[in-house]
Amino acid sequence: MAASRAPVRLLAVVTGASTGIGYELAKLCAQNGFDLVIAADEPEIHIAAETFRAMGVHVDAVEADLATVEGVDTLYTTIQATGRPVDILFANAGRGLGKGFLDQDFAKAKRVIDTNVTGTVYLIHKVGRDMRLVNSGRILITGSIAGFIPGSYQAVYNASKAFLDNFAFALRNELKDTGVTVSCLMPGPTQTEFFRRAELLDTDIGTTQKDDPAKVARDGFDAVMNGQADVVSGWKNKLQATLANITPNEMLAEQHRGMAAPGTARKH
């Protein structure tokens, strides 16, 4: 009698997986028996990979700049080399930038757009086509409740998240008659490296108490596994998202100014 083969594990791809929400998403995948392809633009991605390998799953780690076509192509080549379909894509890589738009280094502002929008959409285009071909797969896009709010002193970042929030719902609708689902995770401020990297530590939003990235990731993981359209993580963020829908944009921009303008940091 031939020996029975061990079942093939599912494959998840997680971008921005070296820290924060992406790291927690990848950890949840490992805990649930998914093999992983993880990516980030920093060497810490290899440290994260060792942690996940210790959980008994296979991990390919890609250090690449996902703000560039070349970086996304490098990641996609690694995915293809597995010879396996992607069961879940967690399109999570993101970048922020504080201060007034006209005071920002434009190269840094462009990098926010290239990371959050161009690189994310390019990766989804490539992996999504593969999923549609086999009529199976799940995609979780990390948007933000920031996408509901004109982001004074985070203008480019909030606009990029508005793009992702809308893109996720549109793509979900386009794929509704297929076996591919698209979900959107919309967290609020979360305790990650984001605020330091975005130069927001002198602001109210940069210094106030934030959500636990493990809880946010769990909400996103559950949403994509259940095929939900979207999830706003945390009741305070749900309230803020609801109020944003009925509050004039000019007022929302002024409120955001009070949180994100340089020098608004307070003792909490």
Automatic annotation (TrEMBL):
Keyword annotations from UniProtKB, A to Z: Oxidoreductase
Entry-linked InterPro entries: KR_dom, NAD(P)-bd_dom_sf, Sc_DH/Rdtase_CS, SDR_fam
Pfam family, one: adh_short
Domain of life of the organism encoding this protein: Bacteria
Start and end residues of each Ketoreductase domain: 10-192
Key word Acetylation present: no
One CC-aspect GO term: membrane
GO terms, molecular function: oxidoreductase activity
Family statement drawn from the similarity comment of this UniProt entry: Belongs to the short-chain dehydrogenases/reductases (SDR) family.
Full protein name: Short-subunit dehydrogenase
